[in-house]
UniProtKB/TrEMBL annotation:
SUPFAM superfamilies: Purine and uridine phosphorylases. It comes from the Eukaryota. Residues 319-355 are annotated as: Disordered. The keyword Signal applies. It comes from Exophiala mesophila. This is Uncharacterized protein. Residues 1-25 form the signal peptide. One of its GO terms (molecular function) is catalytic activity. Keywords: Signal.
């Protein structure tokens, strides 16, 4: 481990919500440094410092047991006060996919947040109304889009993958092959073949049936969605909207309604608390289908694939593109100066407290 001079040397934050995502990120650093002394006594974030190529990166994870948009916003404020010269962040981890006729999203694929004509890449959908016998009517907020330098890198990477293939599976295999301790977790036994169930088919309650879907639900053609075979070693990359809120989605009907109405590609719980505090790109490996059949079998693999994509992306960002051009544009100068109280998330002017 090398010594890095100060916190002001870091330009990019790699942000994770779960330990399994954090470990995958740390394994992909080209070099690690000792963590600089932090100036904030209230900063409880977990940091690993290092570099990818020529870019200094700080990898940060939410403290164990914390999750959701408000915790993420608080984490981001501490992050950019402790590392005052950050240019942008990458929020990297797992999410529940929203497959549709338009988007053939599979487990192990990667979703990258990109703006549309209506939204900036992340849809904050917590607010809304419930009417009896009608689907949930979400009220969606517009959040900041990713920095231009990252959108340019996404496009460059898309072209590179189209010409040469993405090689993400090989990156993960090589990465974990160097660490026998982690090999069994991430690639030792690859996830079982994935199945997408019809939205109308609900998994038995976990308290009455803890067996896997193949046993408790079966694989009859009438309850599964027929899709062509796809090699797990060829994950696809999808660009579009990420839905974010303080709720874990295990509802295929709601998933399908959001996909149809807003064209969202996946669901997660952190992005809406981050992108208006620190300019960021969201990168999510698909580990479930946001339905009642959700389990953790694909979580480690999906986290590793998303991390491999994030590293490929950073390698296409010119080092001079992350240098602050004006001290007044640093993330720390734009950040709120105080920690947020519960329910006072900066991601929206709407109330985001749990109901």
């Amino acid at each position: 481990m090398s010594t890095c001079p100060s916190a002001s040397a870091y330009r990019v934050a790699w942000i994770c919500a779960l330990s399994i995502e954090y470990v995958a990120a740390c394994e992909l650093l080209d070099e690690t440094y000792s963590t600089p002394r932090l100036t904030s006594a209230t900063d409880n974030n977990i940091y690993i410092c290092g570099r990818i190529g020529e870019i200094k990166v700080v990898v940060v994870c939410l403290p164990k047991g914390l999750y959701g948009t408000i915790s993420t916003a608080m984490m981001a404020v501490d992050l950019i006060h402790s590392f005052p010269c950050l240019s942008f962040g990458l929020l990297v981890g797992t999410a529940g996919g929203a497959p549709s006729r338009k988007h053939d999203i599979r487990l192990g694929d990667v979703v990258v947040s990109m703006p549309t004509d209506r939204f900036g890449g992340v849809v904050h959908y917590t607010a809304g109304k419930m009417i009896q016998d009608q689907p949930f009517a979400a009220s969606c907020s517009y959040l900041n889009k990713p920095p231009q330098v990252l959108m340019t890198a996404v496009q460059r990477l898309e072209v590179s993958y189209a010409r040469h293939g993405n090689g993400l599976f090989d990156t993960v295999t090589k990465m974990m092959g160097k660490n026998a301790r982690l090999r069994s977790t991430y690639i030792g036994s690859l996830p079982k073949p994935e199945n997408l169930y019809q939205s109308s088919h609900v998994h038995p309650p976990r308290e009455t049936d803890s067996s896997g879907c193949a046993f408790s639900c079966g694989l009859k053609p009438e309850i599964t969605v027929k899709r062509p075979w796809r090699d797990i070693r060829n994950p696809h990359i999808h660009h579009g909207l990420v839905a974010s809120a303080d709720r874990l989605i295990k509802d295929a009907t709601f998933r399908d309604n959001m996909a149809e109405k807003y064209d969202v590609l996946c669901f997660e719980m952190e992005a809406a608390g981050l992108v208006n505090v620190l300019p960021s790109l969201v990168i999510r490996g698909i580990s479930n289908y946001a339905d009642t059949h959700k389990n953790d079998e694909w979580q480690a693999f999906a986290a590793a694939i998303a991390s491999a994509y994030a590293k490929d992306l950073l390698k296409l960002v010119p080092p001079n593109a992350v240098e602050p051009t004006n001290p007044n544009t640093r993330a720390s100068d734009q950040a709120p100066k105080t920690r947020f109280e519960k329910g006072a998330c900066p991601c929206s002017s709407k109330d985001t407290s749990r109901g």
